[in-house]
Amino acid sequence: MTIIAPSILAADFARLGEETRAIAQAGADWIHLDVMDGHFVPNISFGPAVVKALRPCTDKFFDVHLMIAPADPYLAAFAEAGADAITVHVEAGPHIHRSLQTIRALGKRAGVALNPGTPASSIEPLLDMLDLVLVMSVNPGFGGQSFIDSSLETLARVKAMTAGRSIDISVDGGITPETAGAAASAGAGILVAGSAAFKGGPDAYGKNVAAIREAAQSATGRDGVRC
Ligand code: DX5
Ligand code: ZN
Fold first, then answer.
1. What CATH superfamily is the domain 3-220?
2. Nearest CA to 103 among 72, 81, 62?
């Protein structure tokens, strides 16, 4: 089944706790938390204190996406704050194996993210240490950008490379009911959506999440298998 992971980057930051509860009750499977440092990406969002503050708001899986460099000095803080998965960018530092080993040693699922310009082959040396691959379908830093079509090819390559392994594939950026079907068909089992999940305020969240799920499932079949 497709997992829908709304990004709270698109939520009302003045009411983050309520927003997290509302999107969880509206049918989100995971909560995606986008951490930005103003250095690896040209925007600053929030850090481990916010993740910790939101942890009591829901028991949903916390999918923490670190767009920071270096990431290693902060991994323990995000684990302690309540992350369930921690994803680091393959472009963010020279010691990606060390980062992934550290995340697993902290008892969390280890993910690696690929920018749209990074070839799928960059994860080849990492396959034994990965629980999650996050394919960026926009250049990271901001919500509300348009889906980059070449990420479909990256998703398909990642899908082929990870066949037979228990590695989740996620897509992040520009996911809407219009793009979700193609992303799911190309191999994404987890759809991260910011703007499309949070548009219209809390009364619309249920409808927004359902529309993304419906688009993915009608493209892939109810059981997530391509038809
Ligand atoms: C991009 C972030 C995304 C972003 C998605 O830098 O990693 O998670 O919030 O937002 P939308 O769905 O609006 O493209
Ligand atoms: Zn993200």
1. Aldolase class I (3.20.20.70)
2. 72
